[in-house]
UniProtKB/TrEMBL annotation:
<protein>
    <submittedName>
        <fullName>(apollo) hypothetical protein</fullName>
    </submittedName>
</protein>
């Protein structure tokens, strides 16, 4: 129940900025989908670099500035290469809620 309340709080803040307007569940879904897509893209980049010895031979989309900022919040290189021990709770500490909001700006 606490997580739902926190996502509702995030939704109020993000919705007040203009643009997309979602409820807490909608923003939680966006976050989960964005995180999954980013993890997949990072894995593709990592696999490409391993195949080519450090360079990128595949025609992969570049990471956007938003992707790079999200990757940093999610654990940096460990997130990008798929460290199975890394688990990030976006509400572990209250400041993460505000970091997430700032990243999305």
């Amino acid at each position: 129940m606490e997580i739902k309340r926190q996502w509702a709080s995030v939704a109020i803040t993000l919705n007040s900025l203009g643009g997309a307007n979602k409820d807490g569940q909608g923003w939680a879904k966006y976050w989960a989908e964005k995180k999954c897509a980013l993890k997949k893209l990072c894995a593709q980049h990592s696999n490409s670099m391993r195949r080519t010895g450090g360079g990128s031979a595949d025609d992969l989309p570049m990471l956007s500035d938003l992707d790079k900022r999200l990757m940093a919040v999610m654990g940096g290189q460990e997130f990008a290469v798929g460290d199975s021990q890394l688990a990030v709770d976006p509400f572990h500490h209250t400041p993460y809620k505000y970091i997430f909001i700032l990243i999305c700006l």
